[in-house]
Amino acid sequence: MSPPNPHQPPIRNCHVNLPHKLPALPDLFLTALSVCFLFSSSSSAAAAGSRPLFSRTPIITFPFCPRRFLKFSTMSLRRTHFANPQSLSEWLKPRLPSDSFASWGVKPGTKNVHNLWLELSEGETSLADSSPPVRTVHVVTVRILDKDNRVLIESHQELSDGSVRSRERPLSEKMKPSEDLESAVVRAVAEELGSIISGSGNVPGVKIVPGSYRRKVEERNSVSYPGLPARYELHSVEAVVDGLPDGEFCTVEEEEYGDCENSRVADEAVSVKKHFWRWVSADSVKP
Predict the structure, then answer these.
(1) Do residues 148 and 97 make contact, with C-beta atoms less than 8 angstroms apart?
(2) What is this structure's pTM?
(3) How many domains, the chain?
(4) Which of 65, 110, 213, 214 is deepest in the core (most CB within 10 A)?
(5) CA-to-CA distance for 137 and 230, rounded, in angstroms?
(6) What average pLDDT does the structure give for the chain?
(7) Where are the stretches annotated Disordered (predicted)?
(8) Which DSSP helix (H) or strand (E) runs through 143?
(9) SS3 of 148, please?
């Protein structure tokens, strides 16, 4: 919230003195006629507004909580249009460049329509009904620091189709619907670093640095889904994680979609098998 303007005059309560006497009968009659005229004007405007929806300028209101809005939008689209990956594919084809959509899951480092359908069904992603659609994702980014104030970055990933995807960024993970920041941080560390810390996925040594939270929005074309614009809401924190090696290392993600109820769809999706990590100076990583 912006600080108050010292030159702005203070806001005071305004009191209106009501008349001691009621208005005369003619005045009441004229007031009643004015009210009737207003109601009749509103009715005429409503009748004129019965034209097709797109002939009028839509008014969009935004709720106070964006996460609730995103969850509602995602669930609505999924139930209405996306009963399965095939229906999602049919919805996307006329809205995306054909050559871009054809590269999904074929071009090295990309994902396929099964991945996007799983993101929608899990509530991790929402799509705007536009041409092209805009994919909105809430992402938690964890800048893991060591004793020398270095930052851990993921240099690249090895995918299930054998391709390699460059990353060069701190640990990041899509947030689940209604997931709070701390839970998202712990889950992200457990899923991507748990194999080298404890081998069991339990990560008790995650300490978030107080006051390190930052939020920013980035809009760019998606690398995973070429031709699909993306809007990333990035929730970033700094953290200290116990038990990590000092040099370069690799972690294994056993089942990226292991807890997914749609196992057949998950089998067709491109998943991450290995993560490759290294430490870099904090100055070389954008905040």
Answers:
(1) no
(2) 0.69
(3) 1
(4) 110
(5) 8
(6) 77
(7) 158-178
(8) strand 135-145
(9) coil
CA-based torsion, 87, 272, 261, 178: positive or negative? negative
- Give the range of the structural domain holding residue 189, as residue numbers without chain letter: 85-284
Amino acid at 271: S
What gap in Å lies between CA 51 and CA 18, rounded to an integer?
Answer: 44
Examine residue 245 and state whether it is found in any structural domain, yes or no: yes
Helix (H) or strand (E) holding 34: helix 25-48
pLDDT bin (cut points 50, 70, 90) of residue 253 is confident
DSSP state for residue 213 in the 8-state scheme:
-
Q: Kindly give the pairing relationship between strand 125-127 and strand 135-145.
A: antiparallel
Is residue 11, in this structure, part of any structural domain at all? no
**DSSP states of 42-75 as a string?**
HHHHHHHTTS-GGGS-------S-HHHHHHHHHH
Q: Find the angle CA(277)-CA(109)-CA(239) to the nearest 5 degrees.
A: 30
Express each pLDDT in 258-276 by its tens digit: 666 677 898 999 999 999 9
Position 43 in a domain? no
Integer Cα distance of 57 and 194 in angstroms: 51
Per the CB < 8 A criterion, the answer to whether 54 and 60 are in contact is no
Which residue carries 């005059």 as its tokens? Answer: 9
User: What tokens appear for 227 in the block?
Assistant: 């031709």
Domain membership of residue 53 (yes or no) is no
Tokens, residue 41: 């004007």
Coil vs helix vs strand at 194 = helix
Residue in 27, 39, 84 with CA at minimum distance from that of residue 264:
84
CATH of the domain at 202: 3.90.79
